[in-house]
Specification:
The chain is of the alpha+beta class.
């Protein structure tokens, strides 16, 4: 580690070596309780000067007891946005034991959305550290991962078919038509090699859905793509998306009656929900497609969305209950819910040894709400940055008071209550 630190000035700037090695050294200092070095090393990273909270990380954390994860397990993850990459990288820096980091890495990837535009550049070169542990029950705010486009690209790439490169003429319909004609001559009218150009043509056509001609053009293209994917035996998730798009665009062009479109879409939803190879996330994406097709009448979209949500609710509710066996004593299920009444955590509780480092952070904790309403048996689930505020958060968590109206046991009113404690300089 010392050799890596000494070599950071010689490293290229694109790898952000100084900040990444300082993060590694901060983890080392935190693990042995060296607070002075921890503060100094964390202070080098601008991302530790402000904190937006941990909600996405907490909501997507693994559930204790699933996938081999135990309540004693912990990992430290690092995210970093590179200027040439749309999606941030998420990497494991440290794990409390071998072989259990995969569910945490998946959670970090899910909770770290792609950054675009000015938002992306504000995070470029700022590797961010956080600790993650498992949560006691599944979250109501679990993030749905939209992987449909990535899955389609990955499958097409496996067939030797690649997206159209952005060369500046993506909207030139004559250029696209010429290239499409050449591919049709070479590969045939139903070849998967036509997909990138047909998708580009459909994207252009979809911008003109205000006219009957535009809707008809989009419907014809969607139907042609549907046939190509079927003949190429596309994976079920991709085929379901393509089928639903074709149904909705044919309905928009009045090629089929609205009632028939509803019936066909319902079949797609139900077939997808029953397919074990299609995840609840992917079923939800079908619902999103149905809800966001603005060319369809509002009443039609409302009816379609009602059918989709009914299918999704049955699939997801059954899956969640079967997979997690949600216990009735969790605070999330309490009715009425436990409500925060007061807190004794004060600005003056900010750790003195961190003042010069000017760190900002957040710890998200889980705990039982006692019969009298006090928080008890707290544990840190997500901490950013790691180690900095864990001790003070846990020591002051007992000052949290909740309004409760029932007791789930003789020892507590409910359990797995969540609270995020934000820390910043008090002066």
């Amino acid at each position: 580690m010392a050799r890596a630190w000494a070599a950071t000035p010689l490293a290229g700037s694109d790898g952000y070596a100084i900040l990444r090695v300082s993060n590694d050294l901060a983890v080392k200092a935190g693990r042995v309780g060296d607070r002075d070095h921890l503060a100094a090393l964390l202070a080098l990273n601008p991302s530790n000067k402000f904190n937006a909270g941990n909600d996405p990380l907490y909501d997507n954390a693994p559930v204790c007891g699933r996938d081999g994860v135990t309540a004693a397990d912990a990992v430290i993850l690092e995210t970093i946005q590179h200027p040439t990459e749309a999606e941030p990288r998420v990497e494991v820096v440290w794990a409390s034991r071998p072989g259990m980091a995969k569910p945490f890495l998946a959670a970090g990837l899910r909770a770290t959305p792609p950054q675009t535009g000015p938002q992306m550049f504000s995070w470029v070169g700022r590797p961010t550290l956080y600790t993650m542990r498992c949560r006691q029950s599944v979250s109501a705010n679990y993030t749905v991962a939209d992987t449909s486009m990535a899955e389609q690209w990955n499958w097409q790439s496996s067939q030797g078919v690649y997206p159209v490169l952005p060369l500046g003429d993506e909207d030139d319909t004559s250029t696209i038509a010429t290239a499409l004609s050449a591919r049709e001559t070479r590969y045939g009218p139903e070849s998967v090699f036509l997909v990138p150009l047909l998708e580009q043509t459909l994207t252009i056509a979809a911008r003109d859905m205000s006219t009957p001609e535009g809707r008809a053009r989009a419907a014809d293209l969607a139907t042609r793509l549907q046939t190509i994917f079927q003949k190429a035996k596309a994976p079920p998730t991709i085929q379901a998306m393509v089928d639903l798009r074709a149904v909705m665009l044919r309905a928009s062009a009045q090629r089929i009656a609205m009632a028939d479109a509803i019936a066909q879409a319902k079949t797609i939803f139900e077939t997808s929900a029953q397919n074990p190879d299609i995840s609840p996330d992917e079923v939800f994406q079908l619902v999103s497609v149905a809800a966001n097709e603005q060319s369809l009448p509002r009443e039609f979209r409302s009816n379609l969305l009602g059918v989709a949500l009914g299918v999704l609710e049955r699939r997801v509710a059954d899956a969640v209950i079967a997979k997690y066996a949600l216990p009735a004593d969790t605070c999330a299920l309490a009715r009425p819910p436990a409500r925060l009444a007061s807190s004794g955590i004060l600005a003056d509780d900010y750790p003195v040894e961190l003042i010069n480092a000017e760190l900002a952070g957040a710890d998200t904790i889980e705990f039982e709400v006692g019969i009298g309403g006090a928080a008890q048996n707290a544990r840190v689930v997500v901490a950013s940055p790691p180690f900095a505020f864990d001790d003070i958060t846990l020591s002051r968590s007992s000052t949290l008071r909740y309004e409760v109206t029932h007791n789930a046991s003789d020892h507590y009113a409910c359990r797995a209550q969540k609270q995020t404690v934000r820390w910043q300089l008090p002066y």
